[in-house]
Design goal:
- With 88 residues, the protein is mainly alpha-helical.
- The chain has a single domain, classed as Glycerol uptake facilitator protein (Up-down Bundle).
- It contains 4 helices and no strands.
C-alpha cells in the first residue's frame, strides 16, 4: 500500500508544480525531489507513460500497473483541484 501512496503524492506534487509555475527548473526540481524521496519505495514512475515503460522493461510487476495508473491519475486530478482552490 505504501508504494501506491507514494505514487499518488509524487504525482500530486509534480502536477501541482507544473500547473502553478510552468517553470522547467521548478518542475525538474519537483520531480527530482519526488524520485529522491519515493523512488526506493515505489520505483518513482509518477506518470502513467513511465509506468507502462517500466512494465515493458520488466522492472514493474504486471499486477502493479493498473493500481499505479489509477493512483497517478487520481494524484493529477487532485493536484488540479488543489491548484484551482489555491490559485483563485
Amino acid at each position: 500500500m505504501n508504494k501506491y501512496v507514494v505514487e499518488f503524492l509524487g504525482t500530486l506534487l509534480l502536477v501541482f508544480v507544473i500547473l502553478a509555475t510552468g517553470n522547467y527548473l521548478a518542475i525538474g526540481a519537483a520531480l527530482a525531489l519526488a524520485v529522491l524521496l519515493g523512488g526506493a519505495i515505489s520505483g518513482g514512475a509518477f506518470n502513467p507513460a513511465v509506468t507502462l515503460s517500466l512494465l515493458a522493461a520488466g522492472k514493474l510487476a504486471a499486477s502493479d500497473v493498473v493500481p499505479y495508473i489509477v493512483v497517478e491519475v487520481a494524484g493529477g486530478l487532485t493536484a488540479f483541484q488543489l491548484y484551482k482552490m489555491l490559485m483563485k
